[in-house]
Design brief:
Keywords: Cell membrane, Membrane, Transmembrane, Transmembrane helix. The chain has 566 residues and is mostly helical. It has one domain (4-561): Amino acid/polyamine transporter I (Up-down Bundle), CATH 1.20.1740.10. The protein has 22 helices and no strands. It has helices at 4-29, 39-42, 54-66, 69-77, 82-109, 116-123, 126-157, 162-181, 186-206, 220-237, 244-269, 289-296, 304-312, 323-348, 353-359, 367-383, 387-423, 430-445, 462-483, 489-516, 519-548, 556-561. Helix 7 (126-157) crosses helix 21 (519-548) and helix 14 (323-348) packs across helix 16 (367-383). 56% of the residues are buried.
């Protein structure tokens, strides 16, 4: 079988999901209202709360939620065969991720742009909210530490990506000034910005950058990690329109162009899928498909991290509530498209089954490397681009996705630190919050040495904790829908599936960690499980209570002012 039918079926499913299901959610479930005054207008401060063009905001949201995870997860999960990965990515995106991301954005916008951690206090209870913050803090810490290591590895393994990866920052700064200060046409700025980025890719391919060893007394790997955290800290403090928005927008457009190049190459070359549809001969030690598929592929199907982005930064920039359908649901579709591209590259980018099996020798193999190598081979075959240039394009894509997620993650972690300060009755300003976020991330990354291997120390817990967080976000959405007497089934069905699979995986992981005597991860996994069960129980109680109370007709803050029960 060649990969072309797989691509076309996947594209058709995503298109149908956006045209039909997202419209149903927007009109019948969330009842999006163009006249509703969003937090971006009500609380506009020019820093975090800024009304934003929906296309620019989509770029921010898409690239922030995508990161490297929708490449890594699917490219690892094909070890069980491409059919399970394909079905979970396509159906999970349409019925799970789109609903979750749009719902989190709607819920936050209806509550002054507050995060899911804060909303859990209102809709689930104070005790659950504190535990919710613990899970969120650990998850964000995993993301920024692990992505720093992923980016560092790509900058070293693909030196041709160094110039375009860092040059993208300069392009983003210029785009922000052109759009917001000089009010230039977004279309013109987009064309010029994307052209500049691809010019940088050509330059990078011609002039690869290999750092000397040592550099400033550090190894190249250590230097890149320090530089990345320094950049992310500065980006976290700048107003969103200066760097975060334009960087994410122009990267989003460039990355969609990159995906287009990959998909057109598939259409032109129709590469043969060499990997098995269902792999009955997995390498020894590979865990069972159930429940691991559902936590190995998180981003690209459904991810709790998306809820943090939707409620942490995106909701504060939403110009009109009706924009949430395009930004939130189509943002999830964009990530699904990336995951689909990763699957195709990882199963059809090899010449023979033996070549594929040589890479997939154990669970966890493949990942970004398989995407870059396999995708590069497909682009070379389809469009005739040199393999080195094709690999540079795809490596730059992966770096830019991971980098935008990392700097958004630091900003979100700053918000969490400040929210935790409020719980402890401490006022923490932006600078202190950022220093704590960056300091914690660097401490974890370098906890096992200067090579940054500590950044991946607790990453094995990401899949389960991320999916448990998604189920907790869905529980808040469900409570809100029940309060408003709207159909909660679009939230309850994904909630049940994701919670059961994630909890099952977390318990299995607990046993594996105990057998390996990994006491640190065992303790963290235990904390996450206890927190998830506690919050899930309180969410169930909150749903029952919501069904018995009078319907909520007002927004949360309006209800508080009116003296109604919250």
């Amino acid at each position: 079988m060649n990969a072309l039918p797989l691509l076309l079926i996947g594209l058709a499913i995503f298109a149908a999901g956006y045209v039909l299901y997202s419209k149903f959610l927007g009109n019948r479930v969330y009842k999006l209202d163009a006249s509703f005054r969003t937090p971006a207008h009500e609380l506009n401060d020019g820093v975090d709360y800024v009304p934003t063009n929906k296309f620019v905001l989509w770029g921010h949201h898409f690239t922030s939620v995508a990161g490297a995870a929708p490449i890594v997860g699917p490219a690892v999960a094909v070890i069980w065969g491409w059919v399970p990965a394909f079905l979970w990515v396509t159906l999970g995106t349409v019925f799970f991720a789109g609903m979750h991301d749009l719902g989190a954005l709607w819920a936050s916008a209806r509550n002054k742009g507050r995060s899911m951690g804060t909303l859990s206090a209102r809709y689930i209870g104070g005790r659950g909210a504190k535990l919710f913050l613990v899970v969120i803090f650990l998850l964000l810490l995993m993301v920024i530490a692990a992505f720093a290591v992923v980016i560092k590895n790509l900058l070293i393994s693909t030196p041709s990506a160094v110039i375009p990866a860092w040059g993208a920052v300069a392009v983003a700064l210029l785009v922000g000034q052109a759009v917001y200060r000089y009010k230039m046409s977004l279309a013109v700025v987009t064309v010029v910005g994307v052209t500049a980025l691809y010019g940088l890719i050509l330059l990078g391919d011609a002039v690869p950058v290999v750092l000397p060893d040592p550099i400033l007394g550090m190894s190249p790997g250590t230097f890149w990690i320090v530089a990345l955290f320094g950049y992310a800290g500065i980006a976290s403090l700048l107003p969103v329109w200066v760097l975060l928005q334009p960087r994410d927008y122009i990267n989003g457009v460039q990355l969609f162009v990159g995906l287009g190049i990959l998909f057109v190459s598939v259409m032109l070359s129709a590469p043969t899928i060499v990997a098995p549809a269902i792999n009955n001969a997995v390498p020894a030690g590979t865990p069972d498909l159930l429940p691991l598929l559902f936590v190995t592929i998180a981003c690209g199907a459904i991810s709790g991290f998306h809820g943090m982005v939707s409620s942490g930064t995106t909701s504060k920039q939403l110009d009109k509530e009706t924009d949430a359908r395009f930004v939130g649901y189509f943002g999830a579709v964009g990530e699904g498209l990336l995951a689909l591209g990763a699957i195709i590259a990882a199963v059809a980018g090899f010449r023979t089954v033996a070549d594929w099996e040589a890479v997939y020798t154990a669970f966890g193999e493949g990942g970004v490397g398989a995407f870059v190598a396999g995708g590069g081979a497909i682009v070379n075959s389809g469009l005739g681009l040199p393999v080195s240039l094709s690999s540079t394009v795809l490596a730059t894509m992966a770096i830019l996705f991971a980098a935008t997620t990392m700097d958004t993650g630091v900003r979100l972690l700053r918000f969490v630190v400040q929210e935790a300060g409020e719980v402890a009755k401490l006022k923490i300003n932006n600078v202190v919050g950022t220093l704590v976020a960056v300091g914690a991330g660097m401490a974890l990354t370098f906890s096992q040495g200067a090579d940054g291997s500590g950044g991946l120390r607790i990453w094995p817990l990401f899949g389960t904790s991320n999916q448990l967080l998604a189920s907790l976000t869905l529980s808040i959405i469900a409570v809100m829908l029940i309060r408003k007497r709207r159909n909660p089934l679009p939230a309850l069905v994904p909630l049940a599936v994701v919670f059961v699979m994630a909890f099952w995986a977390a318990l299995a992981q607990l046993g594996d960690l105990y057998a390996a005597q990994d006491w640190l991860l065992l303790a963290i996994d235990g904390v996450i499980i206890v927190a998830a069960v506690w919050v899930a129980f309180e969410a169930f109680v909150a749903m029952r209570r919501a069904a018995q109370e009078p319907p909520e007709a007002l927004d949360a803050d309006a209800a508080e002012k009116a003296g109604l029960k919250g």
